[in-house]
Design a protein that fits this description.
Layout: E1 2-6, H1 14-25, E2 32-36, H2 42-54, H3 58-78, H4 85-102, H5 110-118, H6 120-135, E3 141-142, H7 162-173, E4 182-186, E5 189-191, E6 197-199, H8 205-215, E7 220-225, E8 246-248, H9 249-257, H10 268-273, E9 278-282, E10 291-294, E11 304-318, H11 325-338, E12 343-348, E13 352-358, H12 361-371, E14 375-389, H13 393-400, E15 405-410, E16 414-419
Parallel strand pairs: 1-2, 1-7, 2-4, 3-4, 7-9, 8-10
Antiparallel strand pairs: 5-6, 9-10, 11-13, 11-14, 12-13, 14-16, 15-16
Helix pairs in contact: 2-3, 2-5, 3-4, 4-6
The structure holds aspartic acid (ASP) and magnesium ion.
Magnesium ion binds at residues 7-8, 37, 203, 205.
C-alpha cells in the first residue's frame, strides 16, 4: 500500500489535472490512498472570503465566493467531469453550505469561520479529480476526510486525535480497499466531535498524507511536486542551488525548523515512527529520480542554505541592570510558548536577552507588552536571517559579504547570521 500526495500546483490547471491518469497508470493494480490539496491558490482566495465576511462586507464575501464557485464549475466542465449526478449534487451541497454561512452574522471567533469556509477548497478539488479519474477509467472511491480525521477544536491549528482517527481508519477506510484500488481524499482538514470542520494549519496536506501513511503502514509516501526534488537552497535566491538525491529524516526536520520550504514540518514524525520512506517526485516528469528521505543518516551533504527575510530582533534588558537570570529567561520562554511565537534565534547575556522572530506584528506586539513588565524592550526591524547547515567558510563569507552583521551563532553543523 502506498500514499500519494498531490499539492495545489499539481491540480492548478486543466492540463495538469489531465496529467494525473498517466502517472497513476504506472501503478496499476496497487492499492493507493491519494491526498489532494485545494487547486492552485484556492486557499488564499477562500481566506479573502473569510476576511470579507468577518469584517461585515457580506456582499463582497458572496461575490468572491461566487468567483471561486464559477471557476471550479468551469474546470469541472472543461474536463467533462460534471455530468455525473452524484458529483453535481455533492458540489452543489458544498457551495450551499458556505453560501448559507455567509448570510449569517459572525458570532463565533474568526478561526471557527475560517475553517468552515476554507475547508471547501479541498472538498471541491478532490471531487473534481475523483470524478475526472473515474471518467478516464481509473476507478476510485472519494472519501470526505472529515469522517476520518478526528481533531480537537483548536480551529486553524487543530490537533489530531490519533486514537479516534485510527479506529475510524480501520473501520471505514481499510474495507474500502477490498472494493477499489484507489481511495481519494483531502489533506489539511478534519472535524471535531461536534462535526465542525477544522484545518491543520496552512500547507498541512503533507502532514495529512503522513498520518495516513502511518495508519496504513504504507510502503511509501510519495509527495508529487512541480520541482525535481528537494534542493539545498531556494533556486530563486541562489541560482547555483542543486538537487539532493537522498536525505535523512533528521536533516529534513532541521531544514524545516530553520525555515526551508521543503515540506510541512510535522510531516516527518509520523513517517519516522513507522520507518516509512518519503519520496519527493516531480509530477511533470515522473521518470526523474526525485529525492528519497528515510532513516539513514546521510553524510557529505552539500551546504544547505535557508534565507528568511523580514525578521525582528527584540532586545530585552533587565530594568535595573541586574542579571537577567533564570527568572527573566523563564518569563521569555513562557511568553513565547503561550502565544505560539517561534524564536528563530535566542542569545542570552548578563543583563540582556535577544530574540529573533518572524515579523508577525500582532505577535511581536503582544510579546513586547508582556515582556515590558520586567524588561526594557527595544525592537529592531528589517533584518534577514541566513542559516547554513554543513557550512563551508568560504561560502558563508561570500553570502554575508557587504552586509551589516547584527548577531551570529555557530554550532558544529550550523551557522546562523542575523544581518541587514
Ligand atoms: N490547501 C492548503 C494550503 O494551501 C493545504 C495544503 O495545500 O497543504 O495551505
Ligand atoms: Mg499546497
Amino acid at each position: 500500500m502506498k500514499v500519494f500526495k498531490f499539492g495545489g500546483a499539481s491540480v492548478d490547471s486543466i492540463s495538469r489535472i489531465r496529467n494525473l491518469p498517466a502517472i497513476l497508470r504506472n501503478y496499476d493494480s496497487e492499492k493507493i490512498l491519494i491526498v489532494i490539496s485545494a487547486m492552485g491558490k484556492t486557499t488564499n482566495a477562500l481566506e479573502k472570503v473569510v476576511e470579507a465576511f468577518y469584517t461585515g462586507d457580506i456582499a463582497k464575501a458572496v461575490e468572491l465566493f461566487n468567483q471561486i464557485r464559477l471557476n471550479h464549475l468551469q474546470i469541472a466542465e472543461s474536463l467533462s467531469a460534471g455530468e455525473n449526478n452524484i458529483f453535481r449534487q455533492r458540489m452543489a451541497d458544498f457551495f450551499t453550505e458556505v453560501e448559507w454561512l455567509l448570510h449569517d452574522k459572525p458570532v463565533r471567533p474568526y478561526n471557527y469561520y475560517y475553517d468552515q469556509i476554507v475547508c471547501v477548497g479541498e472538498l471541491l478539488s478532490t471531487s473534481i479529480v475523483s470524478n475526472f479519474l473515474y471518467k478516464e477509467g481509473i476507478l476510485n472511491h472519494w472519501v470526505d476526510v472529515r469522517d476520518i480525521f478526528a481533531t480537537d477544536d483548536q480551529f486553524r491549528a487543530a490537533n489530531i486525535d490519533w486514537g479516534k482517527t485510527s479506529v475510524r481508519f480501520s473501520e471505514l477506510i481499510l474495507p474500502l480497499f477490498n472494493k477499489t484500488n484507489i481511495i481519494l481524499t483531502q489533506g489539511f482538514i478534519g472535524s471535531t466531535d461536534a462535526n465542525e470542520s477544522t484545518t491543520l494549519g496552512r500547507e498541512g496536506s503533507d502532514y495529512s498524507a503522513a498520518i495516513f501513511a502511518n495508519l496504513m503502514e504504507a510502503d511509501f509516501l510519495t509527495i508529487w511536486k512541480d520541482v525535481e526534488g528537494v534542493m539545498n537552497a531556494d533556486p530563486k535566491a541562489f541560482p547555483n542551488a542543486r538537487y539532493i538525491r537522498e536525505l535523512g529524516y533528521d536533516e529534513v526536520i532541521e531544514m524545516a525548523f530553520y525555515g526551508a520550504q521543503v515540506i510541512h514540518p510535522k510531516t516527518i514524525k509520523p513517517l519516522q515512527n513507522k520507518n516509512i520512506p518519503l519520496h519527493v517526485k516531480c509530477f511533470l516528469d515522473p521518470k526523474l529520480p526525485g529525492t528519497l528521505i528515510h532513516s539513514k543518516h546521510i553524510s557529505n551533504l552539500p551546504p544547505i542554505i535557508v534565507l528568511k527575510q523580514n525578521q525582528v530582533l527584540i532586545h530585552l534588558r533587565s530594568k535595573d541592570f541586574s542579571f537577567v537570570g533564570e527568572e527573566g529567561t523563564a518569563k521569555l520562554y513562557k511568553i513565547l510558548a503561550s502565544h505560539h511565537i517561534l524564536a528563530n534565534l535566542i542569545q542570552s547575556g548578563a543583563v540582556i536577552l535577544q530574540v529573533c522572530a518572524d515579523n508577525i506584528p500582532e505577535k511581536i506586539e503582544i510579546l513586547a507588552i508582556e515582556a515590558s513588565e520586567i524588561f526594557d524592550v527595544e525592537i529592531e526591524n528589517g533584518l534577514t536571517i541566513l542559516t547554513i547547515r554543513h557550512y563551508q567558510k568560504e561560502l558563508l563569507e561570500n553570502l554575508i559579504q557587504g552586509r551589516k552583521i547584527v548577531l551570529q551563532q555557530w554550532s558544529a553543523e550550523t551557522v546562523q547570521t542575523l544581518m541587514y
